[in-house]
Structure formats: structure tokens, C-alpha cells
Amino acid sequence: MTDFYKIDVHVHLGISSVLSVAGSTSEIIRKMELNGIHQSVISPIPGYEDPNGVADSRAQNDGIAAALRDHPGVLVRGLGVVEPRHGAAALGEVDRVMDELGLSGLMFHNDFNGLPLDHPSMFAIVERLAAYRNAVAQVHTAQHSVLEAPFQLGRLAKAFPTVTFLNAHPFMDTTHEAASLDLGERHPNIVFDTAVSHTQLYPIEHAVERLGADRVLWASSNPYYETTLDIPLVANAQLDDNVKRELFAGNARRVFQIEEE
Known about the structure:
By secondary structure, this protein is an alpha/beta fold. It is built from 10 helices and 9 strands.
């Protein structure tokens, strides 16, 4: 098997009280080394506790910025978080994430934050994010969800065509895959990661065929595993090695403006 350079675009730092999962910086890097992952894009872990509202989101974002400073060259880009249920109070944190902390965008997992992707608060937050050049919004979807269904992401993508939306875990089952591929054909500003993809019936090949090799980014959903299945899923795909290189690293470099080492 070819040893591909790997940039993981779906990595969560922190403690999830909902799932009882902890992803410290050391644990994230340990799993990167164990699985042969070279660089990662990090974001706060969904399900973190926030009894203090926006102040808790600020603490999560400060943690992302600190991890990037402490581990340059390994943790190479970061996404912040704001909670749409905090309403207008969250908007200032969008500016702090992008201006003061210098992060690449925001992460949303609406099954955890409690409001639907197409809620007015989400539109207000993404409108603020859209003011920044090359902004990325990592948005988790699930076909069965009433809060983060693929069509709801489509409404955001249509409203904000200058934002790159990174659809997180879009191929978890065959129905989700079908909805995600339809979504991608409708909205060219959505790119798709490979995290938690189902492993049968060629999901990666289908995505490349229908959306193009430039719109699929390799990802693992660190720290939710010990040994990731997402590497062999792409490495063993019926695709040319040059295409695999783009999926494993090239597309991440372009979307997140990461210089090649």
C-alpha cells in the first residue's frame, strides 16, 4: 500500500460531557502517530459543557488557539465554535475567532447545540462569518436528524456562496450518502469529508465520480477511535494514486491554505 501524506480535517479537542469522550492534545497527537497521520485541523469537541454561555465558548476557542501555538507543523489549522442558542451574544465571538485568534472558521454540530441548521440564529452567525475571506464552516449532518439534515445545510450554502462549507461525516450510511451527493451537486461551495463513512458499496468512489476529486477531503474524527478505518477506505479505493493524494492532503491544503512541507 502506498504511504500517502495525510492531513486530517476532522479532529476534536476537549471533553464531551454528552458522549463521555476526552480528546486532550496529547491524546490527539498520540492517535495521529499511531495511525500515521501527519497533520490535523482541529476544532472544539461537540457536547462540551457551557453553563456560563459565551464565556465557555471563548474558553474552547482559546484552547484551540493554544494547541496550534504549542504544536506548529502538526496541528496546522483550527476552527472555533459559537453556539446559535446564545443568539446575538455569540456574534462578537465570531469576530474574535477570526480576527484575534486567527482561526480558519467555525464548527457546528447542531444535534449537540439544540437548534436546527436553518434556524435564524445560524443565518446570523454565518452571515457574520461570511465577512471574512476564505472562511470555512465545518457542518456535521445526519440524514435522520431534525436538527442537522443535509437539506438544511443546503439552505445555508445557497444563502452564503462565498463560504466554504465542509460537510462533516456526510456518508455515514447509504441514505445519508445519497442525500449528501445530491446536496453537493446542487451547491458547489460544499466540500465533503470522509469521516465515519460506511465501508461497503464504494462511497468514496461515488463521491469522486459525482462531485469531483477536488471536493472530497480525508478525515478520521479523532479522538473517537483507536485505529481508524478511514485510511484503508480511501487507500484501497478504486482510484488513481494521484487522486488519492488529493483526497488525503492536497484538497485540505487548498481549502485551509496549508503550505506543503
